[in-house]
Design a protein that fits this description.
about 10% helix, mainly beta, 5-stranded mixed beta sheet, Immunoglobulin-like, 5-stranded antiparallel beta sheet
Length: about 350
């Protein structure tokens, strides 16, 4: 009898120790802004703590309307959230937010108590056309749990990282600039939501019931704007049980897929330093400057007038190798010709900007 009990215990322990067949990817809705000290604090916690410990976590940074990034298809998604803390994160559509200092522990608890996602998402096929700048996807979603009740919806969200914009913060901290402190220049934004393909509402997937082992296939096409760097973009697929508000719509599973590569593709660092694109040019208003840095280097990106005077300093510090997108406002500049100059340890590179 003791031998039988011991064997059963071993079987149970072995089953418990087995890795999840469909590991959950926790999703965090991060309400943020480019003119808010606490938002950069949350960003630091997400990068330094959460992503270091749980790299499979998926983050959607929903920037405010006042933000330079807060002009995207579906930006009304922020209206669905009821924030109790500043800064805070909404995790997996569980219906409440948590303060930034508790985000990492809450994510850890979510993984510990729900390591397996009930829905499996497979990308059956994917193509990227750099000419049309379109991604074509065929998705298959399967209920690998028991029968589930309720309408299930999905969305495709395009995010971009390595976005440059100034934030108002104390050095190394997150207190808003209310004491006349200088703007913090060395700040790059990550996981910035650029587009919700089906707007903030999403699109119906299946319902009112989802039978166990039943699969649903959808074919989708997503356009990537010229202002974005496709190598820095990801498409996040979310499947959720729809509720009366997005932050109460429980996430069944989310996956992240690079735009230009296949699943699990790691983009290689650029091999040259250069200003790749200034868009739109000529322009009046918002301008995107795409530049590449091939190795860790001191980096300066400035705008000069025809007299050789620097009228805007966009970057002036050390950066890691990568592709970067700096969004700047030119409305304060008088119409005319300007020069955008990138200086790195390998040399100096320049392109002209025409401001109307």
């Amino acid at each position: 009898m003791k031998t039988i009990l011991f064997t059963l215990c071993l079987i149970g322990l072995s089953a418990w120790m087995l890795p999840a067949q469909n590991p959950r990817n926790v999703l965090i809705y991060n309400l943020t802004s480019t003119d808010c000290g606490p938002c950069s604090c949350m960003d630091s916690i997400l990068r330094v703590k959460v992503m270091a410990e749980f790299p499979q976590t998926i983050i959607l940074a929903l920037h405010g309307i006042g933000s330079v990034f807060g002009r995207y298809q579906g930006d009304s998604a922020r209206n669905y959230f009821n924030a109790s803390y500043e800064p805070s994160g909404f995790i997996d559509g569980l219906g409440y937010d948590v303060p930034h200092l508790a985000v990492n522990d809450t994510v850890a608890s979510r993984y510990a108590h729900s390591p397996e996602a009930p829905v499996k998402i497979d990308i059956v096929s994917k193509t990227w056309d750099p000419v049309s700048r379109k991604v074509n996807l065929t998705l298959q979603a399967t209920n690998i749990a028991a029968d589930m009740q309720g309408p299930f919806w999905f969305n495709l969200v395009v995010t971009e990282s390595n976005l440059k914009h100034t934030h108002r913060t104390f050095t190394g901290c997150a207190t808003p600039d209310v004491h006349g402190l200088p703007l913090r220049e060395n700040y790059f934004n990550h996981w910035v939501v650029r587009k919700m393909e089906y707007w903030s509402r999403g699109d119906s997937l299946i319902g009112p019931a989802w039978a166990a082992q039943q699969s649903v296939t959808r074919t989708c096409s997503v356009a990537i704007d010229t202002a974005w760097i496709p190598e820095n973009c990801n498409i996040v697929v979310t499947i959720y049980k729809k509720a009366d508000s997005l932050y109460k719509s429980n996430i069944q599973q989310a996956i992240r897929q690079s735009v230009t590569g296949g699943a699990g593709t790691v983009e290689k660092p650029p091999t040259t330093d250069a200003i790749m694109l200034i868009y739109p040019n000529p322009s009046k208003g918002l301008v995107n400057i795409h530049f590449s840095v091939s190795g860790e280097s001191s980096c300066s990106l400035k705008i000069f007038d025809l007299a050789g005077k620097a009228v805007q300093t966009i970057v002036d510090y050390r950066v890691n190798p990568g592709l970067y997108n700096a969004e700047i406002e030119t409305e304060s500049l008088p119409p005319g010709m300007y020069s955008c100059v990138l200086t790195t340890s390998s040399g100096q590179y320049r392109q002209s900007i025409i401001v109307r």
